[in-house]
């Protein structure tokens, strides 16, 4: 009697829930089972994308087909056999929803990936001569179909796009270690136990890491064995970080390597400018994933926010044109941030700025008490002991990207004067007393109690306690930007008072429902595009 395939799967699941031993024996028995009446079509082979590095795809390089196994039928058979097994995905990965949307979190390295990496090591062993691997050799990718199958079966595990022909450099970096090829120099220096020195913002020359044209095969195997149990998303942390964390300095170093070796960034000169760009990229990355101001990126950050540093680098690596780029590697956005900080730091972004200089931000928009708390790291802890370029970037983004929940948290911390986790009337009065004096000087005659009542009426949100706002509740309120404007800035309060009430509220409500990651924010894009056009126009 023929058993329906769905009924069979139900039986397997029952065996798994009732007896893991029985289930293991079933899997072992069906792993070699073949259905002669069914033919599984091979996956269609897409066109190979153009490599972002022209130096990595040279038709003049030696092809070592004679050194590799070319039995594609064997590869296909192995793939089809694995398709017969009803894999329990939850044992390996979970689809999760982080702060910035859905992503896949892998608990362990899938067995099929482990097999692929072992096969790659065996292939590299065939390629070595006297234990030396020539990184420039161009080979036909015998693992192409396997990688396509893994990308389909385990979404989000690999961020690179498999290619039919590639160099051993690419194969080692992306297929074996799951590290973008733009970071090859850093990877190979770590592999050979060379230290990766941090570059200061004031450094005038690029780091002099060794450029590798070949690698010792034994050193590849040794280093791979030390990280082989680590999933692809965590490998960038394990390889370039320390104590399972990536610090700001280490992410700055990674971003700098991307800028130095991505051909689209060749126009950025001299090194001081490249370095400031990388520094800006790192600060922008931390704005989204580090609202607590710990200045580290780790597995916990990834699980909470779903932001992948590897994916960001793979994405920019694949782009032949970076004009209008939205990610942390957007050049136009860097240019705006750089010029704004230079304006307040007397033209030197390597220097700290004073509280007096910060007070002049955006034509003295914020009150003295607000600037004092920003300057002392109450919105988010400072990177170092003084208010510098990275801290200014966090402050600028919190000001400009007012539809971001990260921005809301920054200003909540500024407003929570007693640090009790709530914004109460005493917190609000602390700022409004200063604002009243400003309003009196311009003849508005506004009283503190009047503003407190207006705040309650204007934000149109029902809080659990009438006189206390929690961060969670305020994030749910689409008009939180109005709330902070009325407390912190006499200028913005006047603008709020003179607005068309209907149009103003609708605009802020719409922006409050938008994306929370600042690179995707329409408010941020409007800001930097207008600022960039103004700056370029001034230069012309």
From TrEMBL:
<keyword id="KW-0106">Calcium</keyword>
<protein>
    <submittedName>
        <fullName>Serine/threonine-protein phosphatase 2A</fullName>
    </submittedName>
</protein>
<dbReference type="GO" id="GO:0000159">
    <property type="term" value="C:protein phosphatase type 2A complex"/>
</dbReference>
<dbReference type="InterPro" id="IPR018247">
    <property type="entry name" value="EF_Hand_1_Ca_BS"/>
</dbReference>
<dbReference type="InterPro" id="IPR002048">
    <property type="entry name" value="EF_hand_dom"/>
</dbReference>
<feature type="domain" description="EF-hand">
    <location>
        <begin position="403"/>
        <end position="438"/>
    </location>
</feature>
<feature type="compositionally biased region" description="Polar residues">
    <location>
        <begin position="48"/>
        <end position="60"/>
    </location>
</feature>
<dbReference type="InterPro" id="IPR011992">
    <property type="entry name" value="EF-hand-dom_pair"/>
</dbReference>
<dbReference type="GO" id="GO:0005509">
    <property type="term" value="F:calcium ion binding"/>
</dbReference>
<feature type="region of interest" description="Disordered">
    <location>
        <begin position="41"/>
        <end position="60"/>
    </location>
</feature>
<dbReference type="GO" id="GO:0019888">
    <property type="term" value="F:protein phosphatase regulator activity"/>
</dbReference>
